[in-house]
Amino acid sequence: MTSELVLGQYPVATGYSEAVQADETDPLARFRDEFVNTDPDLIYMDGNSLGRLPKGAIDLVDAVVHQQWGDHLIRSWNEGWWTLQLELGDKLAPIVGASDGEVIISDSTSVNLFKLAAAAVRGRPGRTKIVTDDLNFPSDVYILDGVARVFGLELVIVPSDGIYGPVQGLSEAIDADTALVSLSHTTFKSGYTYDMEAVTALAHHSDAFILWDTSHSVGAVPIDFASAGVDLAVGCTYKYLNGGPGSPAFLYVRKELQDQLGNPITGWWGHADPFGFGLEFQPIDGIRRYHSGTMPMLSLAAVETGLDTVLDAGMDAIRAKSVTLSEYFISQTELHLEPLGFQIASPVDPRWRGSHVSLGHEEAYGITRAIIERAKVIPDFRAPDNLRLGLSPLYTSFVEVHTGIQRIREVVERGIHNEYGDITVTVT
Ligand SMILES: *Cc1c(COP(=O)(O)O)cnc(C)c1O
Fold first, then answer.
1. How many helices (H) and strands (E) does the chain have?
2. Which of 127, 144, 203, 217 has its CA 20 to 30 A from that of 57?
3. CB 97 within 8 A of CB 155
4. For residue range 171-207, what is the model confidence (pLDDT) as tens digits?
5. pLDDT at residue 7, rounded to an integer
6. Does the C-beta of 49 come closer than 6 Å to ligand 1?
7. Looking at the DSSP assignment, which residues form a beta bridge with residue 357?
């Protein structure tokens, strides 16, 4: 195996001057500098899995460690820690079209999904089904299946064509026996993005609850829970919100439902009098009842800078750049990669697409490993044959898209990926 890197061998391929011009007129260009970038040669296209580190988060976490933990110790709970997850929830609220007191940062996306799915099922006694689709993130399907088993319900997984959401199939599956419909807003593989309002209306037509997972859309795709009439939602903060590896997730419960539904993980953080230490659980009113236990303060604090950056840039500008970037990506792929056996495995119309694009290729695994190891392009691989490329509007440039595609092209033209097809790694 040779070890030389493939770096920008085709700097003036068709489309390059277009990219330079788009970067020069990009209204979000100044945000690139707000993120740590230790290697200008690295083309990072996995911000939909782990967002880059915002520079401001470094000082923030440093202060939490040194002053709040190191110096103030347990006094810090009364100096902001106890309510930080509510304050950050209120900060996140406008990004998803929610009001103050409707969002908290809490636990992981998986645990929040369990809590809210169980809450919904208990709120529709006598109903027998939970409905989802086969584009959902498999872990979400495992959790919905777990909830269905705990409560003795059936999980119905509506099949799709692998790219587009099966809206017709969902409308046939949702009926008077359905307690809950739960879907990914932007699906993790193809990037298909549901019409949140239309599908919420489908669920409500049968008086079922809707629970959206916005992990792959929040911070990249405009979301308006209020105008779509959404009941319940969850989402990651470590993807397009740049909150840091394993940063706690968020959950949303529409105000009118908060006291009507209950959190099945009844811990002291959701108690009306947590320091009364009585043995009977008394839920506190409002969104705080969806808490269970002590928050991880270091990773919770780190979420704030990413939220500030998204609020500063504004969701309309973020979406506009996301669409232009992905349209450019697709046009470059058609030109330079389709002749090498790649196919677009995402919706081509941007109305139905989030901020990542999937490319199908028979040798996608070897190509992913080769471009990471030899061309400093980082996408990820989704079995069996997908390269997934995330375009993060706050820090991905048009020239990076251009150069990234040229590097992929050279790796495949030179057959370098053939050296990597059998090398396995744990996290793909
Ligand atoms: C990333 C992602 C998750 C991750 O859940 P964790 O609990 O943080 O591991 C869940 N659901 C969807 C749809 C995701 O995209």
1. 13, 13
2. 217
3. no
4. 999 999 999 999 999 999 999 999 999 999 999 999 9
5. 75
6. no
7. 389
Tell me the CA–centroid distance for residue 215 and ligand 1, in Å.
6
DSSP 273-327: STTT--SS--BPSSGGGG--S---HHHHHHHHHHHHHHHHH-HHHHHHHHHHHHH
Which ligand 1 atom is at minimum distance from the Cα of 187?
13
Q: What is the tens place of the pLDDT at every residue in 90-112?
A: 999 999 999 999 999 999 999 99
Quote the tokens at residue 386. 């997908």
Q: Which residues are identified as catalytic?
A: 137, 213, 238-239, 388
Quote the pLDDT of residue 194: 98
Are 346 and 357 spatial neighbours (Cβ–Cβ below 8 Å)? Answer: yes
The single-letter DSSP state of residue 163 is S
Distance in Å, CA 49 to ligand 1 centroid: 9
Q: How far is it, in rounded angstroms, from Cα 281 to Cα 355?
A: 43
What is the C-alpha separation between 297 and 74, in angstroms, rounded? 12
Say yes or no: CB of residue 133 within 6 Å of ligand 1: no
Three-state SS letters, 184-222: ECECCCCCEECCHHHHHHHHHHCCCEEEEECCCCCCCCC
User: For ligand 1, is residue 26 a contact (CB within 6 Å)?
Assistant: no
What's the length of the chain?
A: 428
Residue 44, H or E segment: strand 43-44
User: Whole-prediction pTM value?
Assistant: 0.97
Residue 359, helix vs strand vs coil = strand
